[in-house]
Amino acid sequence: MSSPSSSARKRARSSNPPTPASEDPLSLSPRPREPSTGELQPMPTSPGTDMQSPAIQDTSLFSSPVARRSVPQSEVDMSSPLIYDTPSRGTPARQRPDLGSVRKAPQVDLNSEPPSGDATVASEQTAGQRLVIWGTDVNVGTCKEKFQRFLQRFIDPSSREDENACLDLNEPLYMQKLDEISVVGDPVLNVNCGHIQTFDADLYRQLICYPQEVIPTFDMAVNELFFDRYPDSVLEHQIQVRPYNALKTRNMRSLNPEDIDQLITISGMVIRTSQLIPEMQEAFFRCQVCAFSTRVEVDRGRIAEPAVCRNCNTTHSMALVHNRSVFSDKQMIKLQESPEDMPAGQTPHTTVVYAHNDLVDKVQPGDRVNITGIYRAAPMRVNPRQSQVKSVYKTHIDAIHFRKTDERRLHGLEEENEQKLFTEERVSMLKELAAKPDVYDRLSSALAPSIYEHEDIKKGILLQLFGGTRKDFSQTGRGNFRAEINILLCGDPGTSKSQLLQYVYNLVPRGQYTSGKGSSAVGLTAYVMKDPETRQLVLQTGALVLSDNGICCIDEFDKMSDSTRSVLHEVMEQQTLSIAKAGIICQLNARTSILAAANPVESQWNPKKTTIENIQLPHTLLSRFDLIFLMLDPQDEAYDRRLAHHLVSLYYQSEDQVEEEYLDMAVLKDYIAYARTYINPRLCEEASQALIEAYVDMRKIGSGRGMVSAYPRQLESLIRLAEAHAKVRFSDKVETIDVEEAKRLHREALKQSATDPRTGFVDISILTTGMSATARKRKEEVAQALKKLIQSKGKMPAMKYQQLFDDLRGQSEAAITKDMFDEALRALTDEDYLTVTGKTVRLL
Amino acid sequence: MPSVQDWINNPLGVVDGAFAQNNSGAEWEKKVVEYFKEKLKVNGAQSWVPSLNDVPLHYLKPNSLVKFRCMIQDMFDPEFFMGVYETVDSSTNSKVLRCGKYKDVTDCGQVDFNSRNAVTSERQTFYCVPIPGESQWVKEISFHQARVVPSTSYTPNRHKRSYEEDDEMDTQAQCHCANSHRNVESKRLETEAPSQNNSPSRCSSNLDLNFPLPGEQGPACLVKVYEGWDGFKLNDMLEVFGILSVDPALSLMADDKEASSLLDPTESMETVEEQRAHSPPASLVPRIHMLYAQPLKHNNPLLPSAVSEDKGACRFLSGVLSELTSVRSELLTYLTHIFLGDSLAAEYLILHLISSVYARRDVLPLGKFTLNVSGCPHSSPYTDQLYQIIQQLVPSSYQICMSLHNMNNQRMVPRKDYTANRLVSGTLQLASNTSLFLDETQLEQGQLDATGVRNITALGNLISWQKVDYDFNYHQMEFPCNINVLIVSEGRSLLPSDCQVHLRPALSPPNLEEYLKTVQLAQASSQLNKYRVYFTVARSLDYNISDQITKAVEEDFVEMRKDDPQSVSAEDLHRMLIVARLLSLSYGQTSLSRENWIKAKQMEMMRISRTQQQKCVNGNEP
């Protein structure tokens, strides 16, 4: 019975005769192997039975675990430095099934004839160290020393990782972590391989190439160090080193046979996890005759059953005792390539990962993770009795470290920090591009080149893609400021709005595309459902949550039902989603930009009406859009000509010609990703002055005519736009030019959407209150006129509705519609001047 | 030809020979591939190789060279295998190096896993199915060719029989083979393929072969690819040449593992479903170790498969081009008859059938031309017959009746099944240039459920963007496609379309069915073949627009807009440009001429006026 997890070495070393275990170890139920807590040191890893009765330690049951601890130590070949006694005093070592069985790794004295004739290793090493582990160039002593030196000395002042958040960056990093371990008691030391590489490249190479040998050496080193420093501390088991971020980070696709038995880090998405599998680590045998017991370690999945009892020399008297054997937890995880890493037109690859011990159940299906582990391959035997072998290996990864890549999204601690790796050349290329004076225009014209003109709209969308700077005001009680820019496109059908949306959706890594008609409120937010397998209630997230840190494109925004639209209120300003459903009450982050497209109600844009009237959207929602663009069919000849030329060329230009003209989509993607990750512009003094002026100006325009043309929301929009523009330039400072462009764009959008069709003036109140100031003024005038009319009629308690209407129409020089009359009546009712009952109007 | 015997009957011999000759370098691998490529280049050599599409599996010799015309349905994970391994002969204790390439199972002898000389290599597995929706005539023609060619891969002692008898015997033989293929040996061996319609034994097995379209038949295949697998894409059409492997050990293994998995769950990284999907019995899903694969631009057997520099192909093409115009007019007459005398609809159908996505500008697919023929008679089985006629003209096609039941129950979008770790196919997983015929006359009242809505959305996406979003449970993945969608409906279709033509029958034959049949029968098969070639050739032509014409088109557009800006929008210009393009291609012209531009404009005018009239008629209805 060969277990693929442990018998993975391709170049197997010693050849134990494959003795199949006599019994099936899996008929056993997994038992709690939780090691005991502080009070009960020094024998915590004793096998399960004692756990039920931690208080009564002096029962006879305990004799064996105590004895057991001495057994392996005496049995193990003490010459192996991997095993030699660490100064751990009471803290037991814990097997690391993730590394396979290292204990058997023999050492080779290179001065004597290497038994395998491993000439390469020998020649390299003859000068220096004497002893290396068989098949490698790892000298345990040196390796340990180096690692200890690394732990004691490594300082990384520029560390940005969130794990190191509260550590002093100018002190040795890992010593602080050890200190943390002594306080917290979690005996795991995560080590960034990148740090090792910068510190000692050779050590790093050894770690990558021979993880199975080097990691135990690290363990030993760290334990020596730890127990030297904190001799009194008590841990569950000895500290285990978990390297991560092996710089060989690859996607699954690039794994190849050369990576077998090496330390690798790959990223992917968990698609399936198995149930817990107990795996035997150490078999316990007892002689049926004399009750002598012995322990046999599982070696590469096999147990060498002792044929003869060493005590009484009876043959075949040893029987396996299950509940005294040691098991470890194991879980199979299927990992699938992340969709971003895949070449177009192919299906994603999957890899099997085994998680051991406390890594079990660390990840759930759907999680995006970076896994560091050892890549293994094991041959598949058709049948133990057959010599024929299927010439295929089974491959899997023994996980050593998991790192969830989307964890931060849940906690919302930091800006999207996806480890998108840019090569040096790429970065310098992007920087070069950014240095060009016309980068803004270049990028905007590279956006959806197949869509003709609409330059300002493209610029707006470009800024949306970059987004503003995220600011945190939670200390002062206002929480996060929205950094995302929301844009609404409205206009005639057939002006390629959908195409623009589709393009954006394809461009951004975390984009969602929904259509207003087809989406419900729950589809946008989140819903609670019963998982068919686990029967548990699970929260299924909708489009808005899924596009956190991305862009949610909503087509046919006007067709959306009111209740659906109402969920957007919270998202578009607070950037969160509150859910209270089926006992699940929570608030999810939805820091998404919204790009919506709406058609006018009358299918064709009516230039005589305001935006609100044309699209019939509540103004509360409209005011949350930073930019509202009209996409109209401009009807003039020059435009037609250019449009025709553009379209015709679309149909005959070859692919290459187009490439030359525009930036390629991939570059644009990288440019945006880079800017979003690394550039966080702040307002400089001048720019803030400019913003203030701009705002005051905007307010002034309106106040001259008794209107308010700007609200603080508009100021915030301006800031966001200016920041986004600074990001486009890769600038860390928002300067006046950014403000200028933000102002221009904002004005353009306003000009289009907030122009009062009656007066031709820009009037922001159309968007904020749904009615232009002139319209409001007129309403008031009519009401006053009506009041006068009624007063002029003298004291009449009641009037006919129709008659009053006719009188008013006859009196007024402007045409008065019934609607206006009704509105005036309503206004007067509000003033408690009159009441309307049916067809009669009564004065109060 | 003794050499033919060798490389077709025993290709592994060639491989092993090359390996033995220079076992040190990696050179031999290339040499082997080159060798087979050279062999296949010889005139007619490709037709000597028996095809898995036509010849039932049990007639094929294991480990012989076969070809398979297929579409990549799924891509499995890459696997590591023993590229070179060492075996130990237990009696003499001598070690021999062997090559594991192109094989599933190691050869005799104890394998020494600890050998230093062993080399681990990587290969990729594709799950391939016959091209979905392949028309009957395509099968008949390629099958006919296979029969003509003297095949050398079978035991030579075959005797002549009449075809009818053969067919009968075939079904019998198949039944037997499904049970066990040992008694196949005793059966007579013949190059006959089963008639695809009556082989119930094949689907009797409970194994789901995962064909995109329901009711499809034919072998599915696991193709092992040894190099350049990044070049292949899902839904690519391929002609694979490779070594057939049906080692019974493979099936045995599947059984064995199932038994052992009960004992040791740690062993079973794969679920039972997964095993079934990934290592099905070799008798049902044979393995092909690919030596050489030819990507297919089309699956029309009447044309040389690759547009190569081959002189014969060139001559053939120029011949076709010269008579393209005459074929077109014949075709137009034929289709006009089919459309009951409506020549405009016939014109548009031709344009539709030669349309193909030739480029993508960011998200916009260029060249697609989805046609909606409205005003189809509803009561009679007119649409079914229309589909049959189209089926006779195009190499692959599929009809979807948009009935409520179909919409709510059919699986259209392929979905990843994570338990079995495979892509469960759907009806929209089609190869390039497949004609999809949507019959909206079957529409009925009722409510679409969630699946139905998803299906309609998928169809809409397919039409607008020529892409299908495959469902990967945690995310969706977009696969571009190139499918000609034809919608027949009574009124305007509920799906978007590039162009709607309202059918205006000029004649109303008393018996529609009879009438269509006679029209169809009037076409000789040679005539049909001409049409078939016509479509494939016209579709593959290059096209451009000269600067002069560009200017003229621009002028025209501006002029049209001047009169009434509402009348012509950018979208209309888009459509006119496509129509002009397809019109030119349909005459075999590779650049736009003024006449064609004017003709395209006129056609559009006529069509639009017709639709508007129709609107008026409908509007007047109470």
CATH topology of the largest domain in chain A: Rossmann fold
What's the number of helices of chain B? 20
Rounded mean pLDDT of chain A is 70
Beta-sheet strand percentage of chain A? 15-25%
Question: What is the percentage of strand-forming residues of chain B?
Answer: 15-25%
What is the topology, as strand order, of the major beta sheet of chain A? 5-9-10-12-11
The most extensive contact between chains is:
A-B, 80 and 82 residues
- Helix count, DSSP H or I runs of 4 or more residues of chain A: 27
CATH architecture of the largest domain in chain A: 3-Layer(aba) Sandwich
In oligomeric terms, what are we looking at?
heterodimer
Biggest sheet overview of chain B: 5 strands, mixed, barrel
List the keywords.
heterodimer, A: mini-chromosome maintenance (MCM) complex, chain A, domain 1, OB fold (Dihydrolipoamide Acetyltransferase, E2P), 4 domains, 5-stranded mixed beta barrel, 5-stranded parallel sheet, disordered N terminus, B: 622 residues, alpha/beta, 5-stranded mixed β-barrel, 41% helix, elongated, single-stranded DNA binding (chain A), ATP binding (chain A)
Briefly, what is this?
The complex is a heterodimer of chains A (844) and B (622). By secondary structure, chain A is α/β, with parallel strands linked by helices. Chain A has four domains: 129-244, mini-chromosome maintenance (MCM) complex, chain A, domain 1 (2-Layer Sandwich), CATH 3.30.1640; 262-405, Nucleic acid-binding proteins (OB fold (Dihydrolipoamide Acetyltransferase, E2P), Beta Barrel); 415-750, Rossmann fold (3-Layer(aba) Sandwich), CATH 3.40.50.300; 771-843, Orthogonal Bundle (Arc Repressor Mutant, subunit A), CATH 1.10.10.
